[in-house]
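Propose amino acids for all 162 sites.
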């Protein structure tokens, strides 16, 4: 099963494609959709939506996993991330994907084993789990971690339903 993970951000939205085959996680692709500060916010949201539709149509993932809303100190930032999440959710639904949401704590526990892991620790574990020797941006690593988290949760649910 191929999953696209999305780490929503108003200046950079990470995406990562992870396939599970024969109980192995396989890196399919990833990157980030980013913009300069000068790009108007409404245009960024529209471009994120369009870029995710293109990525989904190019790779045909079966499901999307996305970071759930979290409590932020800055309300303005949280609202902007909420808009980006909305664009990602609409892109997924338009393309016929099921969407699964995970909290930052669930993602970090699933990938690193520790819910308060740093972004650098998450990136290191993603590289180890996917056997990557290339440099990943933190946004891309977070998106891949979200996809890995989903594969781990699906495996757990399958085990519990047996």
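Proposal:
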């Amino acid at each position: 099963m191929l999953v696209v993970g999305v780490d929503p951000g108003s200046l950079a939205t990470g995406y990562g494609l992870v396939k599970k085959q024969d109980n192995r996680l396989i890196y399919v692709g990833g990157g980030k959709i980013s913009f300069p500060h000068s790009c108007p916010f409404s245009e960024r949201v529209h471009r994120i939506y369009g870029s995710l539709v293109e990525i989904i149509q190019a790779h045909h993932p079966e499901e999307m996993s996305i970071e759930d809303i979290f409590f932020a100190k800055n309300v303005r930032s949280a609202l902007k991330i909420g808009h980006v999440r909305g664009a990602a959710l609409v892109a997924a639904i338009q393309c016929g994907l099921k969407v699964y949401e995970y909290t930052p704590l669930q993602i970090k526990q699933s990938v690193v084993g520790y819910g308060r892991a740093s972004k650098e620790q998450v990136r290191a574990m993603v590289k180890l789990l996917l056997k990557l020797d290339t440099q990943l941006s933190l946004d891309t690593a977070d998106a891949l971690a979200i996809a890995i988290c989903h594969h781990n949760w699906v495996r757990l649910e399958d085990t519990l339903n047996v």
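The first helix runs from residue 41 to 59. The radius of gyration is 15 Å.
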